[in-house]
Specification:
The complex is a heterodimer of chains A (452) and B (342). In chain A, 64% of the residues lie in helices and 5% in strands. Chain A has 20 helices and four strands. Chain B has 342 residues and is α/β, with parallel strands linked by helices. Chain B has two domains: 164 residues, Periplasmic binding protein-like II (D-Maltodextrin-Binding Protein, domain 2), CATH 3.40.190; 166 residues, Periplasmic binding protein-like II (D-Maltodextrin-Binding Protein, domain 2, 3-Layer(aba) Sandwich). Classes of the chains: A mainly alpha (452), B alpha/beta (342). The interface between A and B is large, with 47 and 49 residues.
Chain lengths: 452, 342
C-alpha cells in the first residue's frame, strides 16, 4: 500500500525544483485529512464535555437546594396534663404518650405564637396553620421529653422542621399558582408562611440533618436524610477493603511470582478476566443463594452487601495488582535474589513496596465502583426503608442498613416531588465521595509511583 | 484433603457464628410497592411510639413478597408480606410445603386507581366501554369483531375530546394492571358486547378482552408512577393510570378523569361508587408472633383506628379506609389464621 502511494507520488512527479514553499496536491490532501481528523476529535471532546456539563447542571440545580432546609423556631409549652397525667414523672408512664397526643400541643403553641406576634391570615385556622410544620415535629418533641422528663411543665424553644411544601415554596418548587391546585397546601398557608418568615419565626438554614437523619416515610420528605445510607455504605466499604485487599494481593502475588505456568493457571487467569466482566446483578443472586439462604446471614445487612461487593471487586483488584507487580523491573527481583534474599524476602521487601501505589490505586478504583453499585443489593434486601442506625461494628455489620445509591433509587420512586430534590442531593453526596476517592487514587499514583 | 477439611470447618463455624449473632429484633417486611408507602408510614410511627426498633420495609412486588414469606420459618425469613392482590393458592401450597402453616390475612383498606392527564389539557369523563374501545385489539363494529382503528377519543365516544389516543398503563408485572384488566377492560368488554362475540367465536374465557392493540396507542409502563408522570409531562396528550395517593400528591400537575360519572375520592371509593379500586393486604407469619419482638404490637398498631381509621395518617395519604376495620382488629387481636381461599 505504501509502495503504491509512493509510486503514484513519483509518477505524479515532484515539482521540478522540489520547492518547500510550493505545497503539492498530495501534501494538501494530507493536511486536509489531518485537519478533518482534528476537528472530529475536537467535536467528540466538546460533545462529551457538553453532556457532562448538562448532567452536572441538572443534578446541581435540582439537588443543591436539599442542603438548605426551612425551620420553624418557637416555644412549646409541655403541658403536664397531657404528657404526664398521673403527675409522677415515672419514665414508664411518660413512654406511653404518643405522637398523637403531642400534635395538639404543637398546634396550640403555634396558635399562641401567632397571636402574640399578631399574625393572622384569613381562612387559616389553627388546624390549617399547624400543617406548616412537619409531621416529624411530634416525634422530635416526644423524643426530647422522654430524654428529659424534668422539662414537663416548662416552655421549651424548639427548632421544628417546616413541612415539605413550605420548604418547597422557598426553594421555588411550589408557587402560589401550583398551591391553588395542590391538595396539600393552599395559597393562604403560603401567605402565612411569608408572614412567619417576616417575623423571624420561620427561617432557612444549612441542612445538617440531611447527612445525619435516617430515611423518612412518604408523608415527611423534609425529614428524610442520608444518615443510615452513609453509615451502611461506609460499613460495606470497610468490609470490602478488609477482605478484598489481602485476598486480592495474595492471589496476585501467588499467580504472578510463584505459580507455575501451566493449563490450570492459564484457565484461572482467563476466568479472573471473565469475572471482571460479569454483570453485578449476578453477584447479587450468588449472594442471596450462598450468604443468606445457605449460610443463614441476615437480610438487609451490610455484612452480606460487603461480601457480595467483595466478590465483585476482587477481579478488579487482582488485575490491577498483577499489572503493578509486572511493572516492577525484574532486575530488582534478580538483584535481591542475587545477594541471597529468599524469594519471599525479595517480593515482600522489594517488589511489593514498589508496586504498592499501583495496587492502592486499583483498590480505590474498585472501591469507588463498589460504592456506586445498586443492582446486587436489590436481591439481598438492602433496597429497603430502614430508619434504625446500625450498631457499632462488628455487631453493626449484622444490623439492617441501607446504602447511598439505594437511597437515590428509593427516593426517585416516591410520589411527593420533594423527594426528587432529595434524590439529586444524595447523588451530589455520592459524587463527592467518588471524586474524593478518585482524587486520592490519583494523588497516590502521582506521589509514589516510580517510572523506570 | 487437609484443605478440604479446613474449608468445611470454616463453613460450619461461620454458620454457627451467624446463627448466634443474629437474634433479630427488627421486624422484616417485604412486598408490594403500592403498599410500601403505607407500610413505611406505619413503620415510622411505630418506631416513634414504641420502644421497639423501626421495622425494615422492602419493596419488590406483591408476588415476590409472598414467595419470600413462604420460604420457611426462622429468623432469616421475613415476617410480613405486603400485597396489593389476594394471596394465591400456589403461594399457600408453597407455604405449606415449607412448614409455614398459619398465615394471617389482614386487609388494611382500599386503593383507588385513577386516570389522569396533564392539568392544562382537556378534561375527560370515561366509562369502561370507552377504554375498551380505545385500547383493545379487537372491537365490535356492527355486530362483528374487527381490528381497532380508532385514532382519537372522539372516534370512540363523540362526547370525548378529539384528542389522539395515547394511554400509559401499568406493565404486566404490576398488581395495578390486574385491576385495570378486570375492572376496566373486562367491564368494558362486557358492556360493548365484545365478550359475547369472543365467546361466540370460540374463545370460551373471552381472553381477547384483555388483548391490547399494539400500534402504539397503549404504552406499558414497567417503572413506577413517577415514570408515568414524566412521560405525561413530555407528552401532554397522553392519559396515565395512577394510584389515588400518587395523584393526590401531584394535584398541581395532573387532572383526574371521572369514571362512569364518578369522581375518584376516598369517599366515593369507600362507598363503592367509583368502580376501579382494590383491597390492599398484608400477610403475617403466625409462627413468628411472640418470637420477633414487637410483631404483634406492630400489626395491632397498623389496623388501629388512630392509623388505619378514616382520620388517620394512612387515609390522609390516600388509602381508603376499610369500613370493616373493627372486624380486622378483632381478628388480629385473636391471631386468627386465614381459612382456605374461596
Amino acid at each position: 500500500m505504501t509502495d503504491t502511494t509512493a509510486d503514484t507520488a513519483t509518477a505524479a512527479g515532484h515539482p521540478k525544483a522540489g520547492s518547500l514553499y510550493q505545497v503539492s496536491e498530495r501534501t494538501r490532501r494530507r493536511h486536509a485529512a489531518e485537519q478533518r481528523f482534528r476537528m472530529m476529535g475536537l467535536a467528540a471532546v466538546t460533545f462529551s464535555i457538553l453532556a457532562l456539563l448538562g448532567l452536572m447542571t441538572s443534578i446541581l440545580s435540582n439537588g443543591l437546594s436539599s442542603f438548605h432546609q426551612t425551620y420553624v423556631t418557637m416555644e412549646v409549652f409541655l403541658d403536664p396534663a397531657k404528657l404526664d397525667k398521673k403527675g409522677n414523672r415515672n419514665p414508664e408512664d411518660i413512654a406511653k404518650i404518643t405522637t398523637f397526643t403531642i400534635q395538639p400541643l404543637i398546634q396550640a403553641a403555634l396558635a399562641e405564637t401567632m397571636e402574640a406576634r399578631g399574625i393572622a391570615v384569613e381562612g387559616v385556622n389553627a388546624k390549617k396553620a399547624v400543617e406548616l410544620i412537619s409531621k416529624e415535629a411530634p416525634a422530635q418533641l416526644r423524643h426530647f421529653v422522654l430524654d428529659n422528663p424534668e422539662v414537663i411543665g416548662q416552655s421549651v424553644t424548639f427548632d421544628l422542621l417546616a413541612s415539605g411544601r413550605i420548604d418547597g415554596y422557598y426553594k421555588g418548587r411550589v408557587s402560589m399558582e401550583s398551591a391553588a391546585l395542590d391538595r396539600n397546601i393552599s395559597p393562604e398557608q403560603l401567605v402565612l408562611a411569608d408572614q412567619l418568615k417576616a417575623a423571624g419565626i420561620l427561617e432557612s438554614r444549612f441542612n445538617w440533618s440531611f447527612f445525619t437523619a435516617p430515611d423518612a416515610s412518604d408523608t415527611r420528605p423534609e425529614a428524610a436524610g442520608l444518615g443510615v445510607a452513609i453509615l451502611g455504605s461506609a460499613y460495606m466499604m470497610l468490609i470490602v477493603l478488609v477482605l478484598a485487599l489481602p485476598i486480592g494481593v495474595a492471589a496476585s502475588i501467588y499467580l504472578e511470582e510463584f505459580a507455575p505456568q501451566n493449563r490450570w493457571t492459564d484457565m484461572i487467569e482467563v476466568n479472573i478476566a471473565n469475572l471482571a466482566a460479569v454483570p453485578s446483578i449476578v453477584f447479587g443472586i450468588l449472594g442471596l443463594a450462598i450468604f443468606i439462604n445457605f449460610v443463614g446471614l441476615p437480610q438487609s445487612a451490610p455484612i452480606v452487601g460487603g461480601l457480595v461487593l467483595t466478590l465483585m471487586t476482587l477481579p478488579t483488584i487482582i488485575i490491577a495488582t498483577r499489572a503493578a507487580l509486572k511493572a516492577v523491573p525484574p532486575s530488582i527481583n534478580d538483584a535481591a535474589l542475587g545477594i541471597g534474599a529468599s524469594k519471599m524476602q525479595a517480593i515482600f521487601h522489594h517488589v511489593l513496596p514498589l508496586a504498592a501505589p499501583g495496587i492502592l490505586t486499583g483498590t480505590i478504583i474498585g472501591l469507588a465502583q463498589a460504592l456506586g453499585e445498586t443492582a446486587p443489593l436489590l436481591l439481598i434486601g438492602m433496597v429497603a426503608f430502614v430508619r434504625e442506625y446500625p450498631g457499632a461494628p462488628p455487631e453493626g455489620f449484622f444490623d439492617p442498613a441501607s446504602a447511598l445509591p439505594v437511597q437515590v433509587y428509593n427516593w426517585t420512586q416516591r410520589g411527593d416531588p420533594a423527594f426528587f430534590e432529595r434524590a439529586s442531593g444524595a447523588i451530589i453526596v455520592l459524587l463527592v465521595f467518588l471524586v474524593i476517592m478518585n482524587a486520592v487514587a490519583i494523588l497516590l499514583r502521582r506521589r509514589f509511583e516510580r517510572r523506570w | 484433603m487437609n484443605a478440604l477439611k479446613f474449608a468445611a470447618a470454616a463453613l460450619v463455624a461461620s454458620t454457627a457464628f451467624a446463627g448466634t449473632a443474629i437474634a433479630r429484633d427488627q421486624i422484616q417486611i417485604a412486598g408490594s410497592s403500592t403498599v410500601l408507602p403505607y407500610a413505611s408510614i406505619v413503620a415510622e410511627a411505630f418506631g416513634e411510639n414504641f420502644s421497639f426498633p423501626t421495622p425494615v420495609v422492602e419493596s419488590g412486588g406483591s408476588g415476590a413478597g409472598r414467595k419470600k414469606l413462604c420460604e420457611g420459618v426462622g429468623e432469616n425469613t421475613i415476617d410480613i408480606a405486603n400485597s396489593s392482590s389476594r394471596i394465591k393458592q400456589s403461594d399457600i401450597d408453597l407455604c405449606a410445603s415449607n412448614g409455614v402453616a398459619e398465615i394471617q390475612e389482614v386487609r388494611i383498606g382500599y386503593d383507588g386507581i385513577v386516570f389522569a392527564s396533564d392539568i392544562n389539557g382537556e378534561s375527560f369523563a370515561f366509562t369502561p366501554a370507552d377504554w375498551y374501545n380505545a385500547l383493545a385489539a379487537k372491537v365490535v363494529k356492527d355486530g362483528a369483531l374487527v381490528d381497532n382503528t380508532a385514532k382519537t377519543w372522539a372516534d370512540v365516544n363523540p362526547d370525548l375530546p378529539a384528542q389522539d389516543i395515547l394511554a400509559f398503563i401499568p406493565g404486566t408485572k404490576h398488581g395495578t394492571r390486574e385491576v385495570f384488566d378486570v375492572k376496566v377492560l373486562e367491564a368494558g368488554c362486557e358492556a360493548t358486547g365484545a365478550e359475547e362475540a369472543f365467546k361466540a367465536a370460540g374463545d370460551e374465557k373471552a381472553k381477547g378482552c384483555t388483548a391490547l392493540r399494539t400500534d402504539g396507542a397503549s404504552v406499558d409502563i414497567d417503572g413506577d408512577y413517577t415514570e408515568t408522570l414524566a412521560r405525561i409531562d413530555a407528552n401532554k396528550n397522553a392519559i396515565g393510570v395512577f394510584g389515588l395517593s400518587f395523584y393526590e400528591n401531584n394535584t398541581d400537575k395532573l387532572q383526574v378523569a371521572t369514571m362512569s360519572g364518578v369522581n375518584p375520592s376516598t369517599e366515593t371509593i369507600a362507598s363503592g361508587e367509583y368502580p376501579v379500586s382494590r383491597p390492599l393486604y398484608f400477610y403475617v407469619k403466625n409462627a413468628h408472633l411472640g418470637v420477633i419482638p414487637g410483631l404483634q404490637e406492630y400489626i395491632e398498631f397498623f389496623v388501629s383506628d388512630e392509623i388505619a381509621g378514616p382520620d388517620g395518617p394512612l387515609a390522609a395519604y390516600g388509602l381508603v379506609s376499610d369500613p370493616e376495620l373493627a372486624k380486622t382488629q378483632e381478628m388480629v387481636a385473636s391471631r386468627t389464621p386465614m381459612g382456605p381461599l374461596n
